[in-house]
Each structure stands twice: as C-alpha cells, then as structure tokens.
Amino acid sequence: MRDVAKLAGVSHQTVSRVLNEHPNVRQETRARVLEAMESLDYRRNLAARTLVTRQSHTLGIIGFETTLFGPASMLYGIEDAARTAGYLVSIATFRNLEPRPVLEAVDRLRQHAVDGIIAIAPKHAVTDALEQAPAGLSCVAVGGAGGTDGVPTVRVDNAAGARLATRHLLDLGHRTVHHVAGPADWPEAQERVTGWRDTLVAAGAEVPPIIPESWNAETGYVQGQSLARDPAVTAVFCANDRIALGVLRALHEAGRRVPEDVSVVGFDDMPDSGYFLPPLTTVHQDFAELGRLSLALLLEHMAGPESPAHVLVTPELVVRASTAAPAAGRRRT
Amino acid sequence: MRDVAKLAGVSHQTVSRVLNEHPNVRQETRARVLEAMESLDYRRNLAARTLVTRQSHTLGIIGFETTLFGPASMLYGIEDAARTAGYLVSIATFRNLEPRPVLEAVDRLRQHAVDGIIAIAPKHAVTDALEQAPAGLSCVAVGGAGGTDGVPTVRVDNAAGARLATRHLLDLGHRTVHHVAGPADWPEAQERVTGWRDTLVAAGAEVPPIIPESWNAETGYVQGQSLARDPAVTAVFCANDRIALGVLRALHEAGRRVPEDVSVVGFDDMPDSGYFLPPLTTVHQDFAELGRLSLALLLEHMAGPESPAHVLVTPELVVRASTAAPAAGRRRT
DNA sequence: TTCAGGAGTGTTACCGTTCCCAATCCCGGC
DNA sequence: GCCGGGATTGGGAACGGTAACACTCCTGAA
Predict the structure, then answer these.
(1) For the domain that residue B149 is a member of, what is the CATH number?
(2) Is B51 (CB) below 7 Å from strand C?
(3) In this complex, do B93 and A80 lie within 8 Å of one another by their Cβ atoms?
(4) What pLDDT score was predicted for residue A333?
(5) In this entry, which stretches build a coiled coil (chains A, B) (predicted)?
(6) Which of the pair, A103 or B154, is modelled with greater confidence?
(7) Which of A162, A225, B125, B162 sits at 20 to 30 Å (Cα–Cα) from A261?
(8) B194 CB near a chain A CB, below 8 Å?
(9) Structural domain boundaries, residue B20
C-alpha cells in the first residue's frame, strides 16, 4: 500500500479511502490511485484489515455428514450466495454429535474470526450446542430441527411433506400406508413420522408399527423384505429416496410388482430417483435453495440481531411411476 | 494477550513463547502463563498472527460440481485430514470451466492468504489455469486430469479401472463390451474410454461406437434404450453408476433381463449401487482417501517444493449381481 | 578467578490496514 | 476583504501478535 501511495503521490490514508470507496476523494485523485494499484498489481492484505476492523469477511459452516446429497447441496447453495455477498466460506465438520466436537468446530471457526456461522444441523445436539455459543457471533441453523428459539432456523416442513405423500397414497385408494422411518434421533425423521401418522389418524386408517433405523438403502432393503411378505401391504412411504431404493429391490425380489401390487413413495427427490425401477414418486426439496435462504437469514441477523426469524419451506410432491391405485382384488380384501 | 501477561506477571513476549511452545521457558513460568490464559479464556488472534507470519493456517479448495458424490467425498476427506494437520479449509467454487472464473476463485483464496490450494479439478481447464497461478503458492490437483507437469496431482487410474471392468466381462464369455461414455471433455471419461477400448483391441474384440454425453442417469436411459433394441448387445460398461442406473431401467423396460440377457458394469461404487436392481457390479474408488492423499501431498509440497510428485491410485472391481456369462444360445450366435 | 556461553526474560520494532483528529484548500455569504 | 464550513488530504496511533536483539543470570571449563 505504501508503494501505491508513493506512486500515486498521495498518503496511504488516501489509498485506503479509495479502497473503501469513501465519498470524499476527488475524482482525479481516485483515478490516479486506481491506476497505481493496477500497475503494481496491488491487493489489499485482508489479515491486516481483519486485525483492525474485526471483520474477516469469512463465514463458517459447521456440518455433519456433508458427503450426503442434502448437506452437500446446501453447502453449495450457501457458498454460491456467500460469494455474491462478498464472503468466503470456511468449513468445519465433526464426526459425532456429542456437544464437545460441535463446540470445538465452532471454536475453530471463532479462532479464525468468522463473521457468522451457519450450521447444517440435522440434530438437536447441534442447535443445543449452538445456543451455548458466545453471544456476539451470529448463528443460523439450516435443515433440521426447529423449535430452538435462540437460533434462527431455515428448514423444510417435513411434516407437511409426509402428509403430502401419505395423502397421495390414501387418495389413490389404499387402506393404509406403511412407513419405513429414518433414524429416531434425527428430527427430520421424527417429523416425517408425525406427518405420516397424523394423516392416517385423520383418515381413520390403521397406523402400522415402524422400526426407525438409518437413512440408507440397506435399511429399506431389510425392512422391505418383511413388508413384502405381508400381503396386506399395498403402500409404503419411505423416509427418503435411498430407503425407497432398498424397498424397491426387496419388493422386486419377492415378486411383488411396483406399482401394481405395492405403491412406494420416497422423500428428497435425489437427482436420479426419476430413474429408479420404476421411477420414484417422491417429495421434492430444494436443498441448494435452503442453503441460499439460510445465508440471507444469516446476513440479516448479522446486520440487526433483533430478528430471531424462522423460515419454513414447503416441499412438493413429485408424482412418477411408483404409485398407483391398489389392485381391485386386493382393495376388496 | 496484554492482560494475560499482566496477570501472569511476565512480558507479552513470554506469553507468545508459551503459545508457540518455545523451549526456553521455565516450567514454572509456563504454568503460570497457561493458568492466566485459562482464567481469562484467552484465545490468540489469528489475524494478527497471520499479519506478521504470513501464514494463515488456512487451506483453500477450489471445486466444480461439489454437490456430486465424488467431489463431496473428496472435500470431506480433505477437511478431515486438514483438521488433524491444524488447518482450516475455505472453499471457492466456480460455475463454468472458462479460465477466468477459475482464476477468480484462486484469487479470492489468495486474498484471504491461504497457505495452499487443492483443486478438485476434473478438467484440463482447471489445471491449466492453476499453472498460471502465482509462484510461491502451493497447489495440488486431485481427481481428474493427469499429465500436467507443473502441478502435483492425485488421481485414480481410470484406464486401469476400465480395463478391470472390460476384462471382467470378456472373461465371462462376452464377445464384446459396449460402453456408455461420460462427457467427452472430462479427462476421467476419456481415460475410461481408452482403458475399455485398449482391452477390447487387445482381446481382438470388436469396438462398438460410443456417444459421449453426460454423467447422469438420463444419458444411461436414453442410450440404454438403443442398446436394448440391439440383440447383439450382451455386455455394457457404463462410465459411472448413475449412467448404469439409467441403462438398467432401459433394459428392464425393454424386457431384457440383467444379468441373464445383458450384463452391466458401473464405475464409482456409489453408496447405494449395491441396492440397484440388480445390485451393480462396479469399479470402486475411495474418494475420501483421495482427498486425504491430496492433502498430504500439498503439505509435502508446502514444506519443500522440490517434489512435483504424482500419486496414482488403483481402483478395484466389486463384483455383484449385474454381471454373468452370456446366455448359451446367444453366445453361439 | 575469570570468562564463554546458554537459558530465561524483557524491550523495541514491525506486519498492513483503518480510525481519529488536525491541517489545508476552496467556496459562498456578508 | 473576512470568515464559517464542507471537501479533501495527511499524520500519527492503534489493532494483537512475532522477530530480532539485548540483557541478566547461572554454570562449567580454563
């Protein structure tokens, strides 16, 4: 900067003013400084700037299982929005959901003086930990548990999505809808269970038992084998598309046709679920958009923390080929 | 820091020495300082440290399509390894593969004074751009094009993987192997084509034409429909698992059984490809490990730039249920 | 006994910005 | 012609660390 000032024949302070677009700089001076910066290929030292302003222009993201499609897409959406807002994003992941690793991740980001934090926070443990985070540091949680007042959240209305799916199946004429649930300790999985159960109860349908396990295809496959053995099962709502994939395989191997014998609905609308066998009817959620929204909320919160707002996004049902009315014979049974 | 020094009754310099684990500090003094730091909940200001040492303890990652399973997993592996090495990672993605956006991403990271950069660089454009990056900044490219001397790379031997897959099918007794290729401008796709073609040529088998398109299931579905119409097709090697998913659907809809009528092999071994219909035989690559290796290589390069090493990882074939010997009748044709 | 040399500590300068305040210039109004 | 006040600019002093060097002990060898 010193060199720029010398070359332009002004003080370092004036150079700083040009950089920060201070209004009180004569047009001519500004031009001279800009030219000098150009010719010296000058770039400001962010560390020095951070030191004095206490703003790093960096945002932190803490996340869990960021290799899954959902979190990865949110990350993408966040980074996209952050870039246009002039921020760089740093990531800190943790391996398990004890409070300590979460707080350590927050701490790592704080050390690096991030201006705010977005937590891809599928579980209560994370938001709980976040509430213990020091005041003065803006935090937003995205995609998971709601109901934490202290931290603004952006999330999908999982219950509404589950209602959509369940109602779709009931409307097709199914007596009831079975559910392969996600892991019990994930709020998203719980909310989907709730939406499903409420819809069945409201319709006066029987509520079959569930066995919460995990999010992956294996769970779907194992539980799908039991469901396939039960001729009363004509409709299955799966907690996500991967589970649905496993269920489809189990049904197929048991010789039960989809959708003729059994209808299947997923959740998430992963990129290729339209190419499952058969193409999967599922509940679509736009993860990247969720990420963008969370960033907007964070910036808002950083500007004026008076708004502990919560954003709720409603998902949509995408009907493809895995659902149909139950077979006439069976419907009568 | 001043406060800590005062509380411990030493100079700020001694506090600094304790922080940096300088050997020449008396045990007793160190204890006193540590205690003071503890009681004041002191944490060093990384910006100030960066300002003077010119080391930010931050690593940059530039990436493209980070929402895909492969890149997301590499990111995960990198972050994991970076954390244990005491680095934070910042990400900068770009939307298209022109040199400019790539260089802009690099520039953003430079502004933030990253100590090194890992490029999740599937295409030549990226590594080319990287070579234009300023000297003095260590770069490593992972998972994509090789053959760039200037930049150390970590990548999977795609040709070897393709040979594995093709040879597996030939060994089962198939006359030749058809291929649904990935996009032509991705080196990984090209290498897989090469490995496939070389194996066929070496075996004296006919080399069917290919139509490079994209990585997604739709491509597999569309091209799979053509392949399904051709009774001479008994074995298909797909450039990745998603394409394979589309091919499986097309074959199924055309009434051709897998593996009885047609064998299918994928590439990547995505989490759920073991639950496709039928479970997919595929070439496994460990993306997270790739990420970890690239980080190790970067640290090495940062320590002493005399080693422009390249690391090549050999993938493995995972045989599941989508491949079998061709039907007897057809084999004789 | 003297002195070289290393351990332990403090003093000062500096990293590259921004902030605060003062200084100068220029303009219009009286 | 004098003066108040905004526009424009410059001169330090931070910000919170680390590096370089100097200084004081203390030890052991000559």
Answers:
(1) 3.40.50.2300
(2) yes
(3) yes
(4) 41
(5) none
(6) B154
(7) A162
(8) no
(9) 2-44
Same domain, B322 and B191: yes
Number of domains in chain A: 3
Residues B225 and B280 placed together within one structural domain of the fold: yes
Q: Which carries the bigger pLDDT value, residue B80 or residue A125? A: B80
The DSSP annotation for A309-320 comes to -EEEEPPEEE--
Together in a domain, A80 and A205: no
Q: Assess whether A204 and A265 both reside in one domain.
A: yes
In 3D, which of B133, B82, B88, B74 has the Cα closest to residue B106? B133
Determine the pLDDT at residue A136: 78
Mean pLDDT taken over chain B: 91
Option in B113, B272, B277 nearest A47 (CB): B113
Asked if residue A92 and residue A233 are part of one domain, the reply reads no
Per-residue exposure over B168-204, b if at least 16 CB sit within 10 Å of its own CB, e if not: bbbebebbbbbbbbbbeebbbbbbbbebbbebbeeee
Contact B92 A88 (CB under 8 A): yes
B226 touches chain A (CB under 8 A): no
Query: In Å, how far is B241's CA from the nearest CA of chain A?
Result: 10
Q: Is residue A216 part of a domain?
A: yes
Task: Answer whether A246 sits within 8 Å of B275, measured CB to CB.
Answer: yes
Q: Which range is least confidently modeled, A63-67, B157-161, B284-288?
A: A63-67
- pLDDT tens track for B225-244: 999 999 999 999 999 999 99
Q: What is the pTM of this model?
A: 0.92
Question: What's residue A332's pLDDT?
Answer: 39
How many other CB atoms sit within 10 Å of the CB of residue A185? 13
Q: Is A66 in the same domain as A27?
A: no
In a domain, A118, yes or no: yes
B214 contact A CB<8A:
no
Given CB atoms, is B323 within the 8 Å cutoff of chain A? Answer: no
Separation in Å: D4 C1' and B86 CA: 59
Q: How far apart are CA B180 and CA B250, in angstroms?
A: 13
Distance CA A262, CA A274 (A): 18
Residue B49 lies in a domain: no
> Could you say which nucleotides of strand D lie within 7 A of any protein CB atom?
7-12, 14-20
Distance from CA of A203 to the nearest CA of B (A): 33
